[in-house]
Amino acid sequence: MINLLNLTLPELEAWTQAELGEPKFRAMQIWQWIWQRMARDFDTMTNISRPCRESMAAKACIVWPEVTAVEESQDGTTKFLLRLEDGAQVETVLIPSDSREGVRRWTQCLSCQVGCAMGCTFCSTGEMGFERNMTMAEILGQILVAREHLGDTRLHWPMLRNIVFMGMGEPLLNFNEVMRSLQSLNSDKGLNFSPRRITVSTCGIEKNLKELGECGLAFLAVSLHAPNQELRERIMPKAARWPLDRLMSTLQSYSLNTRERITFEYLLLGGVNDGLEHARELVPLVNSVKGKLNLIVYNPAEGSPYAAPSHERVLAFEKYLWDRGVTAILRKSKGQDIKAACGQLKAARQKEQLEEIKATAPGHAGQETSA
Ligand code: SF4
Which residues bind [4Fe-4S] cluster (predicted)? Predict the structure, then answer.
């Protein structure tokens, strides 16, 4: 039985015609019910005839990811652990920001793979290894879950404003489903997110990067995290297989709109990449493209080989860059009390499960989990 969340609008039109014998406008009605009104039951689609709804129910379903845990930080950051249809677990995070007028808006961080093959050494998801790619239904289903949680109908002023593909997984390695998701996000009769409100974050791999720029459906963020090839190889060994100089020269010809800039993410790891010598190397890199830098202070996970940088080093790093004309924005680390960094909640839950398994069946626990 087909999950209708897995169909783009043109695919839904073709399906509606082929399977229901209904015209194109019927597909648009169904699309609006699914993505705008968040219908999960065909019976609620009251502007569609009963025989058509019954026919749909016999051939299709609407399945959202199942919420298995919600954790809310003191700063409002909210993390969801979701179970997919095959039992796989992923995370999505809602991050609040308040306007000067005190109006709260949200950014959602989406996962696009179960686990990740890239093995970045600071990342809990990287430690888990790769399980599988997520489908469009699973990627966009995260947004439906979040909107339901927020009570965001999108009919008036939407509360969920920005989408970032910065959760579990490397988007360029699940490019087909990420592209289909971007196309669907764009639909003004559906979720209606403008490309200016969507960012796709990659650890900087060659595959599909050019195509992402050419599609114009999202802004680009690149996880840099090191200012030279040698350090990048230590911190992000798999991403660094594509050498830093080749990454930078590709970014120099990346398609950008007039006011668009590439965002570089730089995670400050205490004593590893947070010295002024590293800042000095960063300046020409960031200035070689239309770029800006997001500095993120590392929030150590349990058992992590890295430490948080000192406040003084962070401020000195930021100042060094600003003094040399680099736009460097220090991002506050949110949700520290709920393990909001990518993969941390899933890793913690797997560890709890492992402890339970150890207590009941000693000797077999290592086969039960990849965490
Ligand atoms: S940081 Fe991103 S690309 Fe690297 S292992 Fe984690 S999820 Fe994968």
Answer: 116, 120, 123
**Does a structural domain hold residue 364?**
no
Q: Are residues 52 and 189 in the same domain?
A: no
Residue 267 burial by Cβ neighbours in a 10 Å radius (0-12, 13-18, 19+): buried
Q: Which residues are catalytic?
A: 91, 342
pLDDT for residue 360? 47
CATH number at residue 133: 3.20.20.70
Cα separation, 81 vs 70, in Å, equals 6
Give yes or no: residues 307 and 213 share one domain.
Answer: yes
In the structure encoding, which two tokens stand for residue 307, read together? Answer: 């430490």
Torsion of CA 151, 87, 177, 345, to 10 degrees: 60
- Which two three-digit tokens encode residue 136? 């469009």
One-letter amino acid of 179: M
User: Is position 223 annotated in a ligand binding site?
Assistant: yes
Instruction: Please give the residue range of the domain that contains residue 57.
Output: 2-61
Angle at the Cα of 35 (from 198 to 214), degrees rounded to 5? 35
186: DSSP letter: T
Q: What is the dihedral of CA 277, 281, 283, 285, to 10 degrees?
A: -160
Residue 357 and residue 365 in contact, taking contact as beta carbons nearer than 8 Å = yes
Per-residue pLDDT, 356: 54
Q: Does position 78 have pLDDT exceeding 60, yes or no?
A: yes
**In this model, does residue 322 exceed pLDDT 90?**
yes
2 CA distance to ligand 1 centroid (A)? 30
Ligand-binding annotation for 116, yes or no, is yes
User: Quick check: CB of 120 below 6 Å from ligand 1?
Assistant: yes
Task: Please tell me the distance between residue 181's alpha carbon and the centre of ligand 1 in angstroms.
Answer: 20
DSSP class of 346: H
Q: What percent of the chain is predicted at pLDDT more than 70?
A: 88
Bridge-based pairing of strands 113-115 and 130-133 is antiparallel
Residues 6+ apart with CB under 8 A from 165: 110, 112, 171, 178, 198, 199, 200, 201, 218
